[in-house]
């Protein structure tokens, strides 16, 4: 019987001959979770069979002396935040179906505000079986594990070090590559198309397996982890017309990109029939290199002008897959970039399936016109040749000296073996596994169903939307959820000091939430009202 995944793929390919190959591998669920700055909190994120968990903070305000950790149940993966004030970001993902959040308050008695607010969390779909993976969304060639070419073709292996696995907005996968010597990275516009997406993209280099293993399947996404050098970036330039984006990564403290090198481009672009290869992260797996077709012949530029995801692209038969979007297409003789892979699907020409890419000279022309072409971006220091095309950016083009976005890079450290935390009471983790009305924290509700690969690049955006203004408060403000009323817990919450009403009750005679703008039900007593301070509750009763 045809699997659901195969059926959806078949219908998708029947509907269109072009497909932007972004790989959607997860979704997110809304959640309202916070804690007063002076109170400890523990919480368990869990989704059965999930491949990863990644909480999203609308804001975080961890004072000196306090600590917030997110870790796997066995402690092998651990992220720690201290003395941090930041808004709107995903944490590094925890691989597996469970992540534990623990907040330890400072010992100096700091009070008066909340420490953090989690407005959603992402989780990965279960890994597809080989039968459920569309084996060749485009192309008919063979993929080689990068490490397998280290001795036999060291130049290709060295060039592959400059590519990154992109994990976008908690749910999408693409490929990107270092362009020039100043730390810029290029990917597709349909992968990173705006400031919000750039601010929530994780960049991972060196994601290759320690041994040459040609049997790794495309379904093994996130395997062979490398170095996550940044969890956010700043857009320097983006073009929907030619489906590319140039970003500058907000590097983690102490990170250097020098060991990865960088790629250069040929100013004149691709040449018909020239041999090529593609370095990529198909389906979010480890680094792969496509060099030859199934009959052993070299991959080549087979068509210089096809109308596909964007007009006037080049075409080739090398293997690509969802997650390969943004990969560099390199000349096999000069080892320079000649095209930017962006489209599969596939179109059929003379009985062969062809993948497509943006001519790199078009990318160079736009960046040169906007005066943001990175240093050392062109091979042999060549100046770009005059182009017959006068590209016009489809979006506003920031200058290369643009200040970073207002969202700084998280000051977080990742350790393999967690250090021993200061003694705190053994937590009883709240669970997101089986939401019921008796839990002590409001529970998430699924907002999306499992998406599939989609088509036109202009609509290509990861499945997780950017948080609304209402759910992304400033770093100093309390959260402002607008649609969810907290559920009354059945357990008794110890009474704490309740703010005195100051004319903000709006006629309410019980528990009033300023963030929700409404009076909560009569079931909320004085103690329960106080426990929901992250909804800006005040007690208006006697």
UniProtKB/TrEMBL annotation:
Residues 450-461 have a biased composition (Basic residues). Residues 378-502 are annotated as: Disordered. Residues 1-20 form the signal peptide. It comes from the Eukaryota. InterPro entries: Peptidase_S1_PA, Peptidase_S1_PA_chymotrypsin. Residues 382-449, 462-502 have a biased composition (Low complexity). Keywords: Signal, Virulence. This is Aste57867_15667 protein.
């Amino acid at each position: 019987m045809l699997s659901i995944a195969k059926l959806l793929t078949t219908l998708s390919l029947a509907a269109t001959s072009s497909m932007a190959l972004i790989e959607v591998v997860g979704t997110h669920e809304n959640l309202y979770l916070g804690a007063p700055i002076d109170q400890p909190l523990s919480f368990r994120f869990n989704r059965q069979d999930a491949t990863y968990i990644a909480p999203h903070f609308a804001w975080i305000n961890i004072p000196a002396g306090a600590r917030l950790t997110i870790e796997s149940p066995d402690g092998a993966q651990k992220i720690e935040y201290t003395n941090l004030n930041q808004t709107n970001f995903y944490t590094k993902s925890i691989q597996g179906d469970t992540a534990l959040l623990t907040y330890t308050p400072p010992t100096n008695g700091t009070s008066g505000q909340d420490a953090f607010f989690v407005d959603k969390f992402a989780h990965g779909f279960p890994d597809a079986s080989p039968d459920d993976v569309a084996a060749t969304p485009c192309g008919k060639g063979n993929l080689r594990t990068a490490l397998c070419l280290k001795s036999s073709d060291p130049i290709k292996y060295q060039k592959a070090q400059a590519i990154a696995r992109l994990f976008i907005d908690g749910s999408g996968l693409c490929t990107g590559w270092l362009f020039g010597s100043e730390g810029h990275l290029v990917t597709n516009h349909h992968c990173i198309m705006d400031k919000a997406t750039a601010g929530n993209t994780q960049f991972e280099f060196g994601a290759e397996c320690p041994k040459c293993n040609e049997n790794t399947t495309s379904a093994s996404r996130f395997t062979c982890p490398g170095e996550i050098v940044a969890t956010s970036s700043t857009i320097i330039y983006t073009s929907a017309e030619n489906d590319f984006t140039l970003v500058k990564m907000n590097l983690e403290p102490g990170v250097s990109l020098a060991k990865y090198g960088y790629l250069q481009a040929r100013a004149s672009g691709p040449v018909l029939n020239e041999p090529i290869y593609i370095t990529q992260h198909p389906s979010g797996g480890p680094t792969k290199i496509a060099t030859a077709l199934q009959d052993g012949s070299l991959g080549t530029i087979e068509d210089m002008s096809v109308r596909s995801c964007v007009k006037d692209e080049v075409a080739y038969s090398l293997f690509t897959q969802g997650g390969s979007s943004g990969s560099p297409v390199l000349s096999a003789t000069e080892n320079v970039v000649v095209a930017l892979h962006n489209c599969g699907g596939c179109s059929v020409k003379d009985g062969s399936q062809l993948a497509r890419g943006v001519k790199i000279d078009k990318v160079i022309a736009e960046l040169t016109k906007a005066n943001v072409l990175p240093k050392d971006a062109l091979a042999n220091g060549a100046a770009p040749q005059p182009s017959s095309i006068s590209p016009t950016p489809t979006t506003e083009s920031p200058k290369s000296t643009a200040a970073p976005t207002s969202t700084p890079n998280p000051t977080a450290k990742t350790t393999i073996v967690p250090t021993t935390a200061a003694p705190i009471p053994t937590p009883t983790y709240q669970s997101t596994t089986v939401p019921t009305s008796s839990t002590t924290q409001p529970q998430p509700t699924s907002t999306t169903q499992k998406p599939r690969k989609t088509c036109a690049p202009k609509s290509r955006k990861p499945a997780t939307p950017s948080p609304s203004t209402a759910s992304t408060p400033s770093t100093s403000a309390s959260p402002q959820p607008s649609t969810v009323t907290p559920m009354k817990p059945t357990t008794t919450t110890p009474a704490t000091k309740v703010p005195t009403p100051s004319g903000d009750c709006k006629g309410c005679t019980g528990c009033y939430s300023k963030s929700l703008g409404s009076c909560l039900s009569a079931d909320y007593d004085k103690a329960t009202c106080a426990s929901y301070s992250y909804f800006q509750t005040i007690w208006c009763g006697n």
